[in-house]
Amino acid sequence: MEFKYFQFASPFNQFPRAITTSAVVDNYWDESKSNNTGRSWQFFDESLIDYHKLNGSTSGFRGKSDSPIIPIDIDNISITNLRNTLDKLHNLLGDLDHVHIYFSGKKGYHIEIPSCLFAINPTENLPERMKRLVSKMEIGADLSLYKSNQLYRMENSLNVSGGYYKTEIPM
User: Is the separation of the CB atoms in 70 and 115 below 8 Å?
Assistant: First the structure.
């Protein structure tokens, strides 16, 4: 099974969502970067496409998914909070060289940890497992991100309500 499909929406609340791959998402990007643009943080196999064809939507899909990252949403803009969060992650992970941090464009930060550091495998309940894992980190993450089919803001997309773009913060 190849987990290469993800959901894409621009604007964020657009339905139906496009189901695409990394190889062709650029076809959407030029017209989308000035919008609230999101994609699922999970990757799916072809069963998502089959489900969408049968139901006209991805809503309710509960098949297997995978993710190259553990996405973390911190809704607190404080630099002190970010430093404390990074200190906790450093204590947990050691080296943070492969961790990416982004200003979300409004009220906080997104942190991406490679899922291979936790030996995450494709499963039918990936959002629940990620939620449990991030919850145990005790870093004040917004746990609402860990739902089936939940979108995650794309890098360099405009957060319309915040007025800023999601941008990577160099470490």
Answer: yes
Residue 27: which H helix or E strand, with range? helix 26-32
Examine residue 11 and say whether the peptide bond preceding it is cis (omega within 30 degrees of 0): yes
Among 91, 75, 6, 8, which Cα is nearest to 43's?
6
If you count DSSP H runs as helices and E runs as strands, how many of each does the chain have, helices first? 4, 12
Q: Cis bond leading into 16, ω under 30°? A: yes
Query: How much of the chain exceeds pLDDT 70, in percent?
Result: 97
The whole-number average pLDDT for the span 6-10 is 90
- Using CA atoms, how far apart are residues 139 and 89, in angstroms rounded to an integer? 8
Q: Which helix (H) or strand (E) holds 83?
A: helix 79-93
DSSP 3-state assignment of 118? helix
Judge contact between 105 and 154, C-beta under 8 A: no
66 close to 1: Cβ distance less than 8 angstroms: no
Residue holding tokens 């550091």? Answer: 117
Confidence grade of residue 37 (pLDDT, cut at 50, 70, 90) = confident
